[in-house]
Design goal:
globular, 2 domains, alpha+beta, Methylamine Dehydrogenase, Chain H, eight-stranded mixed beta sheet, about 15% helix
Length: about 650
């Protein structure tokens, strides 16, 4: 199968033989030029999100043909895109808003909204907009179905029957909804108006699954106070399929099963050291369930774009795919073989997998979308994540493994600067956020920015990370600032032992939990790093628990989850204060850069502000950058560019690469 590379990078590819050149830092900080590439179920249309300057647009094109729709979403943040049948595209966006006109502290919330685009007309409608007694926001998408030949989308919405108006549905002091109840609505794709078809509960968080026929196939309820989880096979909740106690939110209703009337649930395997398992239930009460994908580490499920039934799963390694149908598996295997030496991720597929969109990354590839036509036997490049970062500027990324000090095997990613041998290199250690997340081999824009300036970049998947099984995740419980932290420095020591990096020329950079780990690297730990950069990092563990208590409740699943991970007996547990960088500011042994979004709804911006004050009070070198109008995820292009530039320049100042 031959690659056909066309369009805006064709001229760039002609320069592949030139000497290594440095792309501007701005090119690494830009939002992807193209993302969320989705092929229609029939395989004749492509929908995707594009960046036009600082604005985001949703485009729909005929495969190999003209542009059919071009809908701007402005400064709104695109969170997802999906086809609803053949004629409509759903786009989920979010925006930060202050629910308190007086600007009370902790009143910023992230509001999610959904727009539906009619491909034939190019017109768009917002779900629940101007609908009486329903908040104009969406709280989950639960499927597409056809009733009497007409297609509908199924969304959760917050009813306002009690108050009759939007503002009264919020707590002005905290910025959170006064009721957690959501109902399920059947939404007309042409008007955005919804009809309630199933009710939620004030006591339980609700999730639904809708069949191709527009019927509720399953409904799960979760009471955060008690951890009581229930699965029902009907909208009236009369047929209970399964029930469990789930204190930290480990049970998840994921999608329809392989045949009509079956659904799939993710859950922990019982027993010490048990892993995750995926169980398919029939809709019958007391169904024992059948385990699927035994021995295959699942990252996401793959469903048919036409029937929404389960076809298989993708693995956490980002490239392995397991499909039940041998013919479909053979088609995917053929696609993988067509891109030797590259990481190939399945992004979307048409009916019967005759058209597939994949995203490739690897040597000289900063992220390319290919449309693979298995009938015609060809692959065409249809989009590029970072078209201005040329082949010669793409740094090599590879997997590394090492043993932690207690013998636990850890995997990480090492990105090497282009044109330099892996010997005695200056290094940037970049722990991921989450902490229940992970880094993969591939094109990471931030790691690539540092590598372009001559640094090796080490991204350790320390204990507590996702994608390595439940036992590995659970090994992180109680280890903030402890073994989760030494897993990072153990990896640094291993690279130094191999001679790849110079341990005396190391800085540590991270966001969210990674920001905490960066600060702990120069406060909880000593003598390891020349500088530290924290983006939206946690600095005081007790204060974070107080924030979660205030925003989610003292009996919430969220609070139980974070207490488990931190190893806190209570919100005010003094034991975790010993691992809080803010409390240890006087011990900081390297310059620190603190960055945070003004509209961060995940980590209280006061965490960074308080750390800055503590460092200044202790006479320690600190720089602070508040990113105006930015959230926790650096979703806006101008501030993402600013964050990349500031972090790289700070590291270069305190730890010169040469």
């Amino acid at each position: 199968m031959k690659r056909v590379v066309v369009g805006l990078v064709s001229a760039a590819l002609c320069l592949a033989g030139r000497a290594w050149a440095i792309s501007p830092l701005e090119d690494y900080g830009k939002l992807p030029a193209v993302e969320e590439m989705q092929v229609s179920p029939a395989g004749d249309l492509l929908a995707y999100v594009a960046t036009d300057g600082a604005q985001r647009v949703v485009r729909v094109t005929k495969v190999g043909g003209p542009l059919l729709a071009n809908v701007g979403v402005g400064a709104l943040k695109v969170r997802g895109l999906e086809w609803l049948g053949e004629g409509h595209v759903m786009v989920e966006v979010s925006r930060s808003a202050n629910s308190d006109p007086g600007g009370a502290p902790q009143s910023v919330i992230e509001i999610f909204q959904t727009t539906i685009i009619d491909v034939a007309t190019g017109k768009s409608v917002a779900v629940f907009r101007d609908q009486q007694h329903v908040l104009p926001a969406t709280f989950g998408f639960y499927g597409y179905g056809e009733v009497a030949g007409k297609g509908y989308g199924y969304f959760a919405g917050v009813p306002l029957e009690d108050s009759g108006s939007g503002p009264a549905a919020f707590h002005a002091g905290t910025g959170y909804l006064s009721s957690g109840r959501t109902n399920l609505y059947r939404v007309d794709l042409d008007t955005g108006q919804g009809e309630k078809i199933a009710g939620g509960s004030d006591l339980y968080a609700s999730h639904w699954l809708v069949s191709q026929q527009g019927e509720v196939a399953a409904h799960s309820e979760y009471q955060t106070k008690t951890g009581d989880w229930r699965l029902y096979g009907d909208p009236e909740d009369t047929d209970m399929i399964a029930r469990a106690t789930d204190p930290t939110g480990d049970y998840n209703l994921l999608g329809l099963g392989r045949t009509e009337g079956h659904v799939v649930v993710e859950m922990p395997r019982s027993g010490a050291g048990g892993d995750w398992k995926f169980v398919e239930y029939s809709g019958e009460p007391g169904s024992p369930g059948e385990e699927l994908f035994a021995g295959f580490t699942v990252s996401s499920l793959i469903h048919s774009p036409r029937t929404h039934l389960l076809l298989g799963a993708a693995s956490t390694d980002g490239v392995s795919v397991s499909l039940f149908d041998p013919k479909l598996q053979a088609r995917w295997d053929a696609v993988r073989r067509a891109f030797p030496g590259e990481k190939v991720a399945l992004v979307s597929a048409a009916n019967d997998f005759h058209q597939i969109v994949v995203l490739t990354t690897g040597p000289g590839d900063s992220g390319t979308y290919f449309l693979v036509d298995l009938v015609g036997g060809k692959a065409s490049a249809v989009g590029w994540n970072y078209p201005t970062i040329l082949q010669a500027d793409v740094a090599e990324a590879k997997e590394v493994t090492y043993k932690a000090s207690d013998g636990l095997e850890i995997e990480g990613v090492l990105t090497l600067p282009p044109g330099k041998p892996a010997k005695n290199l200056p290094v940037v250690v970049m722990p991921h956020g989450g902490p229940e997340a992970r880094d993969y081999v591939g094109f990471d824009f931030w790691a690539q920015a540092f590598a372009s300036r001559g640094y090796a970049v080490f991204q350790p998947n320390f204990r507590g990370s996702d994608g390595f099984g439940k036992a590995f995740r659970d090994a992180g419980y109680g280890q903030w600032g402890r073994k989760m932290q030494t897993d990072i420095s153990d990896g640094l020591a291993d690279l130094a032992k191999q001679g790849a990096i110079d341990p005396k020329r190391a800085c540590i950079v991270g966001a969210s939990y990674g920001g905490y780990a960066a600060l702990a690297g120069v406060t909880v730990q000593q003598g390891l790093y020349r500088c530290a950069v924290s983006i939206g990092g946690v600095t005081d563990l007790n204060d974070m628990l107080r924030w979660v208590d205030k925003t989610s409740g003292d009996e919430s699943q969220s609070l139980r989850y974070w207490r488990n991970f931190m190893g806190a007996g209570s919100i005010g547990d003094p034991a975790i204060a010993a691992y809080s960088p803010l409390r240890l500011a006087a011990k900081a042994d390297a310059p620190i850069l603190l960055m945070y979004g003004h509209n961060d709804t995940v980590v209280d911006p006061q965490q960074s502000r308080g750390m800055a004050a503590a460092l200044k009070s202790a006479g320690k070198p600190v720089e602070t950058i508040e990113l105006a109008s930015e959230d926790h995820w650096l979703s806006r292009q101008d501030t993402r560019i600013a964050a990349v530039k500031a972090s790289v320049e700070f590291v270069m100042k305190n730890n010169p690469p040469d």
